[in-house]
Each structure stands twice: as C-alpha cells, then as structure tokens.
Design a protein that fits this description.
Helices cover 38% and strands 20% of the residues. With 506 residues, the protein is α/β, with parallel strands linked by helices. The protein has two domains: 274 residues, Aldehyde Dehydrogenase, Chain A, domain 1, CATH 3.40.605; 181 residues, Aldehyde Dehydrogenase, Chain A, domain 2, CATH 3.40.309.10. The structure holds nicotinamide-adenine-dinucleotide.
C-alpha cells in the first residue's frame, strides 16, 4: 500500500505502538535469551510492522521457573478467594476502560472488523468478571456418615498452567483461559499465537495495575513448534489448556502423554446449520449469514455447512446469495466493515485454495475470489457454494474463512445423517418451528453445543466444548474451575476408629 492509498483509506499504524513485542517474565519485559525475533504482519498490507521476541526452550524455562516460584512461595495461591476476586474485578474494569484501544490494536493486528473486535474486548472483561464472581460463590461437597466420619472436598490450585491460544479473537480467547486459571489460584505461562501477538502484550500492564503479584502471569511469544512445544513438554507444567486446530491438538496430546498432564482441548469445527421448511426463513437467513461471515469466518463455531430442506431450498439459496453479495467487505478500522482482512497471507492462500476447489465441487452463487477494490492484503469476498455434496472437501474440511457450503435434504433422518457426517462435532444450529423435532434433533446431533432458532449467543455458565475431533473436555462455568483445580478428598474419623485390626491374631 502506498502512502497515498494509506491516506485515502485511513489505514494507518495505531499510535504509540511499542518499538518491539517482548516476553513478560517474572514481572519484567524481556527479549529472547538468544535475541531471536520474528516479523509481525499487518494483514491489510502484509508488510511487517513490528518484530516480536521469538521464544525457545530457554525462555519457556525462565517463565516456568518464575511461575513455579510464584506458586510455591508467592501469595497468590494462598489468598482468600475474595481477595483474588477483587483483583480479577479490577482486571475486568481495566479491560473495559481500555476497550477501544484493545479493539484498535486487535483489529489492526488480526484484520478483524473494529466493531467486532470491540465486542470481543468487552467479552474479555466479562470473562474476568464472571470468574471473579464464581470463585467467591464456589461451594464444595461435604458428606457425613453420622457418628463415624466426615468427608469433604479440599479444592486446590494445581500449579503452573500452560495456556496456548490461537489467532482468531486472540485477546478474548486468552481471557477465557486466564480468567479461570488465575481465579483458582494457579500461576500461568501464556503462549499466544504467532500471527497475532500484539494484544497479548497488553495483559502485563493491566495485571500489574490490578495488583496481580509478580510472577503469577508470564508471557512467552514465539512459534508453536518451539515455544509451544517447550511448554507442552515442560515437566513443571501439570496443565495445558489449548485452543487451536484439531491436528495440533492431536500432536500436543501425544507430546504431553509421557508427562501425564491435565489437558483441555478446544479444537476445530465444521458446524452444520440445519434449516427446516417450517423455519422463520428471514431469521434463519440473517443468522446463517452472520454465523459464517462474522469474525471474517475465522470462527471455530462458524455454521459453515448449511443444510436446507428441499421445499425451501431454491428460495433459501437465492435469498442467501443475494444477501451474501451485500455483506460489506472493508478495511478493518472502518465502523461499517462486516468482513475485514484475513489474518495472514498463508491463511489467505489456504482459504483461496478452498475457494478454487469449491468451484469444482459446488455451484458458485456468491463471491469466489479476492474482494473487489482491495489490491493488497487478505480480503476475500464472502463466498457461497450451493449443491455441495457431502463427500466434497469443502463440506468436510474446516476452511476457517468467509466460505460456506449449502446442501439440500428431504427428511429429518437425512438431515441428521448429513449433520453428523464430518469428523468434527463442535456446534450445531437448528431452525424449525416444530418443538418436538427441535428437541429430538438437538439431542441426536453430534455436537458439543446446540443453538435452537438462535445465533451463537452463549451464557457463560454453560459448558463449552466439542465432541469427536472438536475437543476434549469441557470448559465454561464451574467446569473451568474443575479443570484448573484438584479436588482432594479428606476423610475424618468421628468417635471410635473403626478399622479392622491386623497383626494381633493368636
Ligand atoms: P493452530 O493449531 O495452528 O495454533 C494454535 C496455537 O498452538 C498457536 O499458539 C500455535 O503457536 C500453537 N502450536 C502450534 N503447534 C504447536 C505445537 N506443536 N506444540 C504446542 N503449541 C503449538 O491453530 P490456529 O491456526 O492458530 O487457530 C485456528 C484453529 O483454532 C481452528 O481450527 C479453529 O477452529 C480453532 N479454534 C477452536 C476454538 C474452540 O473453542 N473450539 C476456538 C477458536 C479457534
């Protein structure tokens, strides 16, 4: 992009950027031990606009040592839940008060539309507030055997939690892990995605201001195969919470196995949106457009396969294609932008290869290439393929961009078979006005989360997670508390000790 174009479009570097992105270890910003860095790209120009420290094993070792010290010797795990909760509320306040700055940086670094990045920043604050409240309301089980025994659960933080996160909505997804890990008294090492390290660097200042003790939060930037791998294989890290691709999850599962770590995995998806003929058609079109084109389609729960009952199929496809063509592609910083720029040229190439493949596997009814009017960067026109057969790769594989496949069905049984016909099982969206069908279908569909006549609106108390290749374990609400804590059972004798006596026989 030339200076003149930058001037005309208003796309410019955010003010007051740091001169480089560093790690944050034991309360200090530091470079990599070996001094190595990597380029961070602006997704609108694909030019490097910053350098980030590229962490390796030595940096992870230092971060884990700091986190371990803060866990074994520091105040955080021993503080009253109410005291930790106050710190978490202060973090939420700070995130809320900086939501515009966070959104500006996130949008610039990731290519997400600014209005959606702002929503994600607010959600990040909400995540902290939620766990601040939950931790003081936490109750644990006590069981009594009258006159004989009391048994109770002593819930304890586990130690150093390794948090590994992806580049889609990075700040919000980091908050999702940081909130419960810290609320429960653990210390952490965060390894954010290498495509989008900018917003993660803001956590350090926020945490310092909120009063989080030194060494509790540590951040190491770098590549998955180096920094991420060292974290997964570190013997002093008993927990790994990972969000990313299913194939990476499988690799991490194997790498963590010798250490018998606790693992939580939020992985990929290819979620179906099933539209029956009795659905509110306009609502279904609006929701399924938003469901796959919001967040640039870089959304794990995207409804990227739309299954439509034959009676309304043609009408649905026409309406959908018309509306998809009007989805506004724009510069990420513009308030009116609905689809921005994909995060990185490598990802753009991957998505575009599926767009080309789709032309051989389905009927192109909208989009189908680079968005018009954008000469640089990773702008993809919202793309819709109809008549996609279930064995097509664009039906089976996660594209993670603004690309959707539409397929017709006749009966409920066929719809269910199609919905379940992928290796993934993250989310499902069902559109029907028949109550019985709605419940029967939701209960039978292989998905960790189902939305009925609804978009992806999530109550933070509910479980979040996928089945099949979409995940392992559930987080969300008290399930996150369970993942980040040990539940030690303590048994106490009341009255007489009642064990059988050994070694006193004649
Ligand atoms: P990715 O798997 O490439 O990377 C995710 C993170 O893992 C990054 O920080 C990366 O550096 C790190 N990593 C890579 N290889 C590693 C290794 N060998 N050891 C340790 N860490 C390693 O995923 P991505 O491309 O950043 O993100 C997109 C994927 O994330 C999509 O598949 C999407 O569906 C999924 N996702 C899932 C959810 C969910 O909640 N289920 C949410 C968001 C994104």
């Amino acid at each position: 992009m030339t200076d003149a174009t930058a001037q005309a479009t208003g796309h410019r570097l955010p003010a007051e950027l740091p001169d480089r992105i560093q790690h944050y270890i034991d309360g200090a910003f530091v470079d990599s031990v070996d001094g190595d860095t990597f380029d961070v790209l602006d997704p609108v120009t694909n030019q490097a606009y910053l350098q980030a420290a590229s962490g390796k094993k030595a940096d992870i070792d230092a971060a884990v040592a700091a986190a371990r010290r803060a866990f074994t010797q520091g105040p955080w795990p021993r503080m009253l839940p109410r005291e930790r909760s106050r710190v978490l509320h202060r973090i939420a306040d700070l995130v809320e008060s900086r939501d515009r700055r966070l959104a500006e940086l996130e949008s610039f670094d990731s290519g997400l539309p600014i209005s959606q990045a702002l929503g994600q920043a607010r959600r990040a604050a909400e995540n902290f507030r939620f766990f601040a409240d939950l931790i003081v309301a936490q109750a644990d089980d006590t069981y009594k055997v009258p006159g004989r025994q009391i048994n109770y659960v002593n819930r304890k933080p586990i130690g150093v939690a390794g948090l590994i996160t992806p580049w889609n909505t990075p700040f919000m997804l980091e908050s999702w892990k940081l909130g419960p890990a810290l609320a429960t008294g653990n210390t952490v090492v965060l390894k954010p995605a290498e495509f989008t390290p900018l917003s993660a660097s803001l956590w350090a200042g926020i945490f310092e201001e909120a009063g989080l003790p030194q060494g509790v939060f540590n951040l190491v930037n770098g590549f998955g195969e180096e920094a991420g791998d060292a974290l997964v294989k570190h013997p002093d890290v008993p927990l790994i919470s990972f969000t990313g691709e299913s194939s990476t999850g499988a690799l991490i599962f194997g790498n963590a196995a010798p250490y018998l770590k606790g693992l939580s995995m939020e992985l990929g998806g290819k979620s179906p949106a099933v539209v029956f003929a009795d659905a509110d058609l306009d609502a279904a079109v609006d929701a399924t457009i938003f469901g796959v084109f919001s967040l640039n389609g870089e959304r794990c729960t995207a409804g990227s396969r739309i299954l439509v009952q034959r009676e309304i199929y043609d009408e649905f496809v026409d309406k959908y294609a018309e509306q998809a063509k009007r989805v506004r592609v724009g510069y990420p910083h513009e308030e009116t932008t609905e689809v921005g720029s994909l995060v990185h040229p490598e990802h753009y190439d991957k998505v575009m290869s599926y767009v080309e493949l789709g032309k051989t596997e389905g009927r192109l009814v909208a989009g189908g290439g680079r968005a018009e009017g954008f000469d640089t960067g990773n702008f993809v026109a919202p793309t819709v393929f109809a008549d996609v057969s279930p064995d097509a790769r664009i039906f089976q594989e996660e594209i993670f961009g603004p690309v959707v496949a539409i397929t017709p069905f006749d009966t409920d049984e066929e719809a269910l078979a199609l919905a379940n016909n992928t290796k993934y099982g993250l989310a499902a969206y069902i559109w029907t006005s028949d109550l019985k069908r709605a419940h029967n279908f939701s209960q039978a569909v292989e998905a960790g989360m189902v939305w009925l006549n609804s978009n992806n609106v999530r109550d933070l108390r509910t479980p979040f997670g996928g089945v099949k290749a979409s995940g392992l374990g559930h987080e969300g609400g008290y399930r996150s508390i369970d993942f980040y804590t040990d539940q030690q059972a303590v048994h106490i004798t009341l009255g007489e000790v009642h064990n059988p006596t050994f070694g006193k026989q004649d």
